[in-house]
Amino acid sequence: MAPPVLFALLLSLVNISLGSIFTAPEQVSAFKKYDFIIVGAGTAGSVIAARLSEDPSVNVLVIEAGVADNGTDSELIYIPLLAGEGVGTLFDWNYTTTAQSGFNGRALDFPRGFVMGGSSAINSMIYSRGPSDEYDRLANLSGDSGWSWDNLEGYRLMNEKHSSPWNNRSNVGEYDPSVHGYGPLLTGLTPTVFETDNRVIANTAAYPEQYPFTLDLNSGNGLGFGWLETSVGNGSRSTSASAYLHPALNSRSNLDVLLHTQATRLVSTSGKVTFREVQVAQSATATIYSFKATKEVILCAGSVGTPQLLMLSGIGPTEQLKSVGITSVLNLADVGNNMQDQSILALQWEVNGTSLSSFLSDATALNESLEQWAINKTGPAAGNMMVNTIGFLRLPSNSTLLVAGDPAAGPNSAHIQLSFLETFYPNPGQVSPTTGSWMSATVVVQSPTSRGSLNLTSSSAFVHPTINPAYYTTAFDIGAAIEGVKMLRDFLATPVWDGYIIAPYSAVAALQTDAEIETYIRTFANTLDHPTSTAKISKITDSFGVVGPELLVKGATGLRIVDASILPAAVAGFPQAEVYIIAERAAALIKSTWSLS
């Protein structure tokens, strides 16, 4: 736990607001009319709320089931060094998957943000837009060229701004200033370069054809190795709440946020599929309240919360709804289906020298860094230290895994992601060594083909749905993961690593055959926490899908979805950045629909 002095500093992150923050539905005036109701104050919801409230003629209400981001334990959100420590706490929905056959029957913790800022407040802070192919695929599948990479340029620029690290370390030659913008979200590169990072980059210089260096992986070039941007600026994590929602609340009286309150059902007009009313409650036994929007209800509850709320409202697969006693209002078979997620596997090596492992195992050094952050947001705690370099690779064109087709978004999109850490990063079930210096590298299948589902087990919003991402249930996925491990070993076998890598961790050293690698993957891989596609987009003329190109729910009126659930497949980059960009354009579409400024 961070020192108590941090709490006063964290409270100062949020000023007294003109907009209201309510903590119970009865506090909201029954006489106030809202034009837009947004369900979820996460990555997308905060963007939509901030952009719509720019027009003073409209009133906006945001309903958030979770907690404030500036109260108890908020240091777990805003101190960059503690990124990921919010998982499993009061800031997390604390979901669990079903037993995964691809993981030898293991059920996994499935983190999702339960706080203002949503998952942007508890994730690993990575800001990676992904390749241009990703957005062009979105445009093609939706039939709307506005979603293409080229046409989204303005929305990319209005989302984020590159900032210098706390120590003003020069990062010239590590990123391309021309592809970064002027938006409220702050992004940046590491304040501390480690020996592991230097050798990753040196490998690209020594073997440029095999391991090309990409100046900026946010440029639309989705392949190669380069430096990793994170959502950090001015020594703190930058979230959708700190960048968008709080500044809007602090300056506008037409924006309200209701916390600790869960949307339980959308109510349709009798005999019609118009959804402009949201029922809410604070527990399964609490009083139910209703709020109505005169224009739209916008769901930003994420790849779990959005399909769950749709189904609770009678929108989804008729037979699935019937099984829990919910009457179908709108039969959309793809609600809750087509779920994709990516998994991550770590491998470790002992190295020469003093690595980050030494700092992370030194309680005195850690406490001193937290105290320094509390004083002036500087020091080792004030910037990303864990993953600074990353690589995106494709399988060989003659790979037998591609015979049935290429699942990647396009030829500029990766099949495999490798990232590098100068410490021992354990998989679930592994214990970090207490001695020695270590580095780790992770393998991610960037473009999986496995698809799972999310289903209701109850008609109550307060009962978690079953979450089945169906990891490694296709031959491509497990085959690509095995090839990814081999690619990583080849990358670390060049002379560039001589004198630095001593030996692989014992469990890694034992991996010799494909069968042994597969067993290791199924035993130790974990979720990367990137669920998508449970309310996926399609053309307006398609009989499948949940939303059309403007993200309006098919067959419904007054209802739109803006979050990762609309994505057609697992992202080729990292979902945080893509969801921000999608939300920026979605806000513009909503403004255009209603002729707002």
Automatic annotation (TrEMBL):
Essential cofactor(s): FAD
Molecular function GO labels: flavin adenine dinucleotide binding; oxidoreductase activity, acting on CH-OH group of donors
Top-level taxon: Eukaryota
Signal peptide residue numbers: 1-19
Protein name: Aryl-alcohol oxidase-like protein
PANTHER family: CHOLINE DEHYDROGENASE, MITOCHONDRIAL, GLUCOSE-METHANOL-CHOLINE GMC OXIDOREDUCTASE
Keyword set, alphabetical order: FAD, Flavoprotein, Signal
Residues covered by the Glucose-methanol-choline oxidoreductase N-terminal domain: 302-316
InterPro entries linked to this entry: FAD/NAD-bd_sf, GMC_OxRdtase, GMC_OxRdtase_N, GMC_OxRtase_C
UniProt family annotation: Belongs to the GMC oxidoreductase family.
Binding positions (FAD): V115, P575, Q576
